[in-house]
Amino acid sequence: MVGLGDINSGSNSSSKAKDKKKKKKKRGGSKRKMTAEQTLAFKSVTEWVYLGRQNSSSTASLSSWVVDDFGVQKSLGRGMEKVVFELHSHSKHSDGFLSPSKLVERAHGNGVKVLALTDHDTMSGIPEAIEAARRFGIKIIPGVEISTIFSPRNSEMEEPVHILAYYSSCGPKRYEELENLLANIRDGRYLRAKDMVLKLNKLKLPLKWEHVTKIAGKGVAPGRLHVARAMVEAGYVENLKQAFARYLYDGGPAYSTGSEPLAEEAVQLVCETGGLAVLAHPWALKNSIPIIRRLKDAGLHGMEVYRSDGRLAAYSDLADTYDLLKLGGSDYHGRGGHGESEPGSVNLPVLVLHDFLKVARPIWCSSIKDILDNYAEEPSDSNLARIARFGRMGSFKGSSPFGCGKELIDRCLSSWLTSEERQNAEFEAIRLKLSHIEINLGGGQVPIESK
């Protein structure tokens, strides 16, 4: 499925016992002190990760940190925490097997410090993930994986494309526009899954629609994975891999399309709503080069290049060609078994993390400013709910039932924006407007919509 080139830092097909040491070295087994550039990058990344809370072990002893041959951070000494980013994960709110809370707990167990929950076509799991993350000291990046279609003039080249979107602590600006797009996709997923079941029935596999929806769960739009799981449980195939290989692969006998938007339109909307747009698993595409070229013109910021088995050299070169960020994540679903990568298993180099935040943070800062300015101009409950949906509002439990908007916003943003970012002239003007606004917290939490 790789399609272009080999894995640059993955395992090679040599004799196992003989080349064990070579493999270790090729994977970056040797250690060396960080360069000056890496040290500054690491300091910048960790300062953002630990904003709003005390942390001494990660930045105080930078001289003790080392990196491997590929620039991936390693530590020397006990009590020193690696800063691990997981930028691609799924929960039960789409086709994952774990609840957002259990996913956060799993990520914490693997040492993850920053987790992007990127469910398919929904952000409904974000509030639960944020609440769980407070218990484990994890920072949540609100995200979503958008199902789209690449549709060139030659219809034979049409294929599905997935776009990862990463947002700030206040979520997307113009949230309704994004949610309308996602809702249309989810509605299409119901029709698509029903069509798959009908096609399977015509192939003499009497799968029940009720079986698929039961597996998906209440309020979750069924996807191919839910259909595949139902097929396994009904005994029509031995495992998920067989379900896809025989029936559900792109263009397969039971495959069906939904109502996905054009990939370029989705990328443009992500950019317009204050997000970072990244192409997911480009190695799964049949025509990756024309797709990447077209999406770059639409505003694409980056593409996945790193996996748990290393960096894909060909796609890294493509990212360089089109001046795109090189990112990656485990794409964890919680299926279990030996074939699935764990959250936090993708080793992103220090400079890659720094480049990601260097591009993302100004976008997020501008988006947060627009969202807060909109609330300051129109301090309605609905506008507050948009902030509360993705903010760390759980920290207000047990506090005074009334607070001014300035205090509320400062406490929400202290873990996302630096004091320097929050104290610029534009934020000061917003803070002044908010200082006259009182918010009734109802003695607890500001209501958060879950769907």
Describe this structure in words.
Helix 4 links the parallel strand 5 (112-117) and strand 6 (139-150). The protein is globular. The model is unreliable at 1-27, 394-402 and 442-451 (pLDDT under 50). Helices cover 42% and strands 13% of the residues. It contains 16 helices and 13 strands. It is an alpha/beta fold.
List keywords for this structure.
single chain, 451 residues, alpha/beta, 3-stranded antiparallel β-sheet, 16 helices, 13 strands, 42% helix, globular, disordered N terminus
Oligomer: single chain
User: How many strands, which pairing sense, and closed or not: the largest β-sheet?
Assistant: 8 strands, mixed
Helix content: 40-55%
* Rough outline: globular
| N-to-C span | 35 Å
- The fraction of residues in strands falls at 5-15%
Secondary structure layout:
Elements: H1 20-26, E1 32-33, H2 36-49, E2 66-67, E3 73-74, E4 84-86, H3 100-109, E5 112-117, H4 126-136, E6 139-150, E7 159-166, H5 175-202, H6 209-216, H7 224-234, H8 240-248, H9 263-272, E8 276-279, H10 288-298, E9 302-307, E10 310-311, H11 313-321, E11 325-328, H12 350-377, H13 381-390, E12 402-404, H14 405-413, H15 419-422, H16 425-434, E13 438-440
Helix pairs in contact: 2-12, 3-4, 6-7, 7-8, 9-10, 12-16
Q: What is the gist of this entry?
A:
With 451 residues, the protein is an alpha/beta fold. It has 16 helices and 13 strands.
